[in-house]
Structure formats: C-alpha cells, structure tokens
Write a structure and sequence with these properties.
25% of the residues lie in helices and 19% in strands. By secondary structure, the protein is an alpha+beta fold. The chain has a four-stranded antiparallel beta sheet with strand order 5-6-7-8, with no helix packed on it. The chain has a two-stranded antiparallel ribbon with strand order 1-4. A two-stranded antiparallel sheet has the order 2-3. The longest helix is centred in the middle third of the chain and has 20 residues, at 135-154.
C-alpha cells in the first residue's frame, strides 16, 4: 500500500490518462489506491474500505457541483462557522442536541464517537433541546469540535475494530476517548462511576410559582388568605431536582393524585470537580 502523497500522484496519473481532472470522493469510508497487486503489475487499483457497510465512493470531474455536496453544512474550520450561525441554524428545531449534531448540522463531519467526546468536553447536555442552546454554548461546541477533531486527525483517527488509514496503520485516538465506550468505567474527569450514582436518591419537586412579598404582608397571612403568584393560569410549572431546575411541565391528574407531564427539558451543565 502507498502513502497519501503517492496516492495523490496516482490520482493525477489517472486524471492525465482520462485527459480530465478527476476527484475521488469517499463517503462513509476510506478510499485507498494500490500500485499493482503486490507490485507485480503496473495497474492502479482503487480500494474502498468501508467496515460498517453504509458508505460509497464516487469519481467526478466537477466536485463543486457534486450532488451530495449541495446540502452539506460547513466544515468545523470554515470561517463562516460561529456561535451566532449555529444558533440561527438550530432555531425552532425540536430535536435534542446530539441528534442534531449527528444529522450533519450545524457543521458536517461529526459522527457518534466524536459527538460524544465533543459534547462531554464542552460540558453540554446531549439531551437538551437544540433550540435552547445559547450562542455562548454553541461557541464552546465549535471550539471543542476543532480541538477534538484535530487531536483525532493527529492520532490517525479512531480504530475500534478493523479500521485502518490509507497508510495501513490503525488510528490511536481510541486511547484518548473520555466517554465513548466507557460504560461502567469511572468518569475520566471526576472519577465517579455513573452506574453506581444511578442508585442515589435525589429530591424531585415541582414549583407552582413564586412571588416576592414584603415581610409585613407575610406576617399578616392567616387561614383563608390567598397569595397571588406571578405565574399565569395554565402556564407551565418548574420541575426541580435537588433544587435545580431541569424541566418545564404541565399538571395532570393520575387517579387520586396530581402529577406532571414533562413538556421541555432545560439545559443543565455537567458539574465536575
């Protein structure tokens, strides 16, 4: 197998043979070129390595008009990518943050492994509604995307099973993963084991509303007094876990008991030591 520099030269040879510029586009896999079979011939072999079986390879003379590129989002290092840009793209969307990232928005090229790593390092809740991500949080996402992806590139990618790069070498970024594939392992940031913490009881409370009152009015309260809250009738109420607001909900009746139906999750930052 040849290195990437020689591979580029081989593509040029093919292009010269066809008397036209030629671009190889690999989607979902790695395109590799071999000079002959075990160097016994002068043939040029193009090999497409796609371990997960959902990729494709295409040859085109005009990559700018290639049909799969027309709907692609900018790449992470594109100068047009900013917190404001991401916030605008996500406006009005109801999916959660990780699903949105995996769909190729607001930037392209981030799969499951890197989405997990980037969101963890940026301290962003993957399950928060994407429409609630602030400009500042998007800026943290962009910054961490560039850092994580560059580290992965420098390490040759992430080899989990049978992946190898165009030079035949595995990717070593798997040694630097913080969360992907780390189930049942202690948190690489705080040292806690999330599976153990799942058995810890927390207090879930519902806040009907609030109001600020003068102390004198509070002292005058008695049986039968009515306190008017700031919340409007029919307005959603707050759901709190250990005093921290985590969701909005509406009141429902379940048999003889009151309950709540969660209507919106609120962004919560992961707190680590």
């Amino acid at each position: 197998m040849i290195n990437t520099q020689d591979q580029d030269q081989l593509f040029s040879l093919v292009a010269n043979y066809l008397k036209s510029n030629l671009t190889c586009i690999a989607i979902g896999g790695t395109a590799m070129m071999f000079l002959g079979y075990k160097n016994t011939t002068k043939d040029i072999d193009l090999i497409f390595n796609d371990p997960r079986k959902f990729g494709s390879v295409h040859l085109t003379r005009d990559p700018d008009s290639f049909r799969f590129f027309s709907k692609l989002s900018p790449e992470p290092w594109d100068e047009s990518v900013s917190g404001s840009y991401c916030h605008k793209v996500a406006a009005g969307k109801s999916v959660n943050l990780k699903s949105f990232v995996l769909s190729g928005r607001p930037i392209t090229g981030i799969g499951n492994i890197y989405a997990c790593e980037i969101l963890f390092q940026a301290r962003l809740n993957p399950f928060m509604p994407v429409s609630q991500v602030s400009v500042k949080e998007w800026e943290a996402f962009i910054r961490q995307s560039r850092i994580t992806l560059q580290k992965a590139i420098d390490s040759g990618g992430t080899t989990l099973r049978d992946f190898s790069g165009v030079d035949g070498k595995p990717g070593y970024f798997y040694r630097k993963l913080y969360v992907y594939g780390q189930k049942d392992e202690p948190c690489t940031s705080c040292g806690n084991n999330i599976e153990i913490l799942k058995d810890v009881n927390v207090e879930v409370s519902v806040e009907l509303g609030r109001i600020t009152m003068p102390l004198g009015d509070v002292l005058n309260l008695s049986k039968g007094s009515v306190v008017e809250l700031e919340n409007l009738a029919g307005e959603q109420i707050n759901v709190l876990v250990n005093g921290q607001k985590i969701a909005m909900a509406e009141v429902v009746v379940i048999g003889e008991h009151f309950g709540v139906r969660i209507s919106k999750l609120i962004s919560t930052k992961l707190k680590t030591n």
